[in-house]
Amino acid sequence: MSRSATVVAIRPHRKACGACADCEVRRTAVCAALEDDEVVALERIMGSVRLEANAMLVEEGAPRRRVFSLTSGMLRLLTALPDGRRQITGFLLPGDYLGLLDEATHTLTAEAVVPSVLCGFPVPQMQDLMERYPRLRDRLHQMTKAALRQAWDNQLVLGRLAPVEKVSSFLLVLSARQASGRPVSDTVPLAMTRADIADYLGLTVETVSRSFTKLRQQGLIRLPDAHRVEIVDRGALAAVAGMEPQSSGSSTPSTKR
Question: What is the CATH number of domain 161-255?
């Protein structure tokens, strides 16, 4: 797979661009902490980043000079294993923030799954804004806690023994995350490939495909195409995953711990 690094040119103190007013994730991303008249300060340090599918945004071990907010598309987070394989540790969705950990270097590589757009912010200027607007720091603290909960859910998924349990959990968690505060939909877009899912769940591509087929044969899901799953019986799928069923108005699955 060909990958290309992205160089982001950000000019501090530029004129506010007004992009946040029409942003689809304005109320769910980090900028939700700021009032409309305050977000201008964020726009002044912001640079837009556009990535083609499979392009690299940041590389593991590179200096952490900028943080990012994903506005559209999807990113995969991964680390290289000693034997040359990759382990995907998670996927970022619109509204998610890259750079929550206060580290000098990036701890993971971030790549675009599909064409994606991000807002980039230089770390020093972002820290200055957090001092200026404490609500911004509080918002990032909330997002950090949410990311830790997501990491816990990831550990539960990876800890399941049966591949079909892992795939079921993956679909339910992704469905809840994509809802972003809205009622959970039974249609789950899968922007990532089966290979991405396999490298995330610690399975082979063939095993992932067989698990999807098994869930379809059991009448729990439909597979209209390779990038879309329709959940037919959410309660039964949750039972397979060992999770409590999600209500139609809930956006977060309740996992038995």
Answer: 1.10.10.10
The CATH number assigned to the domain with range 19-153 reads 2.60.120.10
3-state secondary structure the chain: CCCCECCCCCCCCCCCCCHHHHCCCCCCCHHHHCCCCCHHHHHHCCEEEEECCCCEEECCCCECCEEEEEEEEEEEEEEECCCCCEEEEEEECCCCEECCCCCCECCCEEEEEEEEEEEEEEHHHHHHHHHHCHHHHHHHHHHHHHHHHHHHHHHHHHHCCCHHHHHHHHHHHHHHHHHCCCCCCCEEECCCCHHHHHHHHCCCHHHHHHHHHHHHHCCCEEEEECCEEEECCHHHHHHHHCEECCCCCCCCCEECC
37-51 pLDDT, tens per residue?
888 899 999 999 999
Per-residue pLDDT for 92 more than 90? Answer: yes
Mean pLDDT of 80-91: 90
* pLDDT tens digits along 172-190: 999 998 887 778 889 999 9
Q: What is the pLDDT of residue 254?
A: 43
